[in-house]
Automatic annotation (TrEMBL):
Enzyme class: transferase
Reaction(s) catalysed by this chain's protein: guanosine(37) in tRNA + S-adenosyl-L-methionine = N(1)-methylguanosine(37) in tRNA + S-adenosyl-L-homocysteine + H(+)
An example Gene Ontology CC term for this record: cytosol
InterPro entries: Alpha/beta_knot_MTases, tRNA_m1G_MeTrfase_C_sf, tRNA_m1G_MeTrfase_TrmD, tRNA_m1G_MTases_N, tRNA_MeTrfase_TRMD/TRM10
Assembly, per entry: Homodimer.
Protein name per its UniProtKB record: tRNA (guanine-N(1)-)-methyltransferase
Pfam family membership, one: tRNA_m1G_MT
Keyword line: Cytoplasm, Methyltransferase, S-adenosyl-L-methionine, Transferase, tRNA processing
GO molecular function, one term: tRNA (guanine(37)-N1)-methyltransferase activity
Domain of life according to the entry: Bacteria
Cellular compartments annotated: Cytoplasm
Length: 224
């Protein structure tokens, strides 16, 4: 898989992709993540990529021209399954969305800034709009990083145990059950006996019951 991220602040993403699972995924050849500085595609001598909104009002708007140049430059080298715009008014990111996108080959993620992008970008180029929650960030970089992480960890071979992702919260419309590790007792707090029994079938049954109970208590909407 290849993920191209278009941003005004490429260095903001450097650290995120340079550590842990995301770094190993790239080093192992499971994914290629490339950031593109949108200012490189500006024809303005000051490398500006924004301007005042027509009709007035507070805030600046990202221009269509540099975005169009960047996207078309990328499309000249390969075809893309989706061009994703990170925006608060997009479709809410869910595990199902991440699962679907993890099956794609090439993705472009466009990071918004200021008051967002010229609407014509959304009409002409964007194929999917995604939000990571009902709140507004200073820019789309953190949202793009969140989306990328959710996708990349699902790629075969990225996690040491591929079954791990299959038991995460939301995979079966359930929250994950409680988990424990050593020591078996800490200050009088004990690990449930069933987890120490070695009886795999009963442990699986217990975990399912716990996941169901936790979901009913915290996210009953997932069971509807």
């Amino acid at each position: 898989m290849r993920i191209d991220i278009i941003t005004c602040l490429p260095r903001l993403l450097d650290s995120f992709f340079a550590h842990s699972i995301l770094q190993r995924a790239q080093q192992g050849g499971f994914v290629e993540v490339v950031t593109h500085d949108l200012r490189d595609y500006s024809t303005d001598k000051h490398r500006r990529v924004d301007d005042y909104a027509f009709g007035g009002g507070a805030g600046m708007v990202m221009q269509i021209e540099p975005i169009a140049r960047c996207i078309r430059s990328l499309q000249a080298d390969r075809s893309y399954d989706d061009i994703i715009y990170m925006t608060p008014d997009g479709e809410r990111l869910t595990q199902k969305t991440a699962n679907t996108l993890s099956l794609k080959q090439n993705l472009i993620i466009l990071c918004g800034h200021y008051k967002g992008v010229d609407e014509r970008v959304r009409e002409q180029f964007v194929t999917k709009e995604i939000s990571i929650g009902d709140y507004v960030l200073s820019g789309g970089e953190l949202a793009a990083a969140v989306l990328s992480d959710a996708i990349i960890r699902l790629l075969p071979g990225v996690l040491n145990d591929e079954t791990s992702a299959l038991t995460d919260s939301f995979q079966d419309n359930l929250l994950a059950p409680p988990v424990y590790t050593r020591p078996a007792e800490f200050e009088g707090l004990k690990v449930p006996d069933i987890l120490l029994s070695g009886h795999e079938a009963k442990i699986d049954e217990w975990r399912h019951e716990q996941a169901l109970a936790r979901t009913r208590a915290r996210r009953p909407d997932l069971l509807e």
